[in-house]
Amino acid sequence: MPSLDVVLEALSRAQITVADLIISLLTSHQYKEDYLVVDLIQRSADIFDAFLQPAESRDKFKKCSLHLLNKVYLQEIQTLASEDSGSHFGASHTSTKQLEDFSLEEMVETMRARAPYWFSLLGMIL
């Protein structure tokens, strides 16, 4: 196996940073089945743990992770709140039958299915 120095030198000669390489590999459909990309995805937890090891990168990684999670939560909340989600309640347009048929359990299952990460966060908070 070539030493890391050889790999880094090859990237330098190609004028590609490690970050650019990883981003390209993960976003290109051409390489999505490549064993290197599959390995990268399978070992993502190890990679994230490695970012937490040096104290210099720990806070930055936590901030980036939180920013990404917030985007996921926001997307899920927007999905739940969209008019076509079936979650809208308009008192002026609601019939007695609709109120009688309302099921909190059904609403919870819908939320769990359409916003799993948001639902998980709510479960941890509550």
Weakly predicted, low-confidence segments: none
Would you tell me the overall average pLDDT? 89
How many β-strands, per DSSP?
0
Number of helices: 8
The biggest beta sheet, please?
none
Helix content: over 70%
Total of domains: 2
Intertermini distance: 50 Å
Structural class computed from helices and strand pairing: mainly alpha
- H/E element sequence: HHHHHHHH
Amount of beta strand:
under 5%
Taking all Cα atoms into account, the compactness measure Rg is: 22 Å
Approximate shape: elongated
Structure description:
The chain has helices at 4-13, 18-27, 35-42, 44-52, 55-81, 96-101, 104-114, 116-125. The chain has 126 residues and is mostly helical. It folds into two domains: 1-53, no CATH class; 71-125. Helix 7 (104-114) packs across helix 8 (116-125).
List the helices and strands and how they pair.
Blueprint: H1 4-13, H2 18-27, H3 35-42, H4 44-52, H5 55-81, H6 96-101, H7 104-114, H8 116-125
Helix pairs in contact: 7-8
Structure described in brief:
With 126 residues, this protein is an all-alpha fold. The protein has eight helices and no strands.
Q: Any key phrases for this structure?
A:
single chain; about 130 residues; mainly alpha; elongated
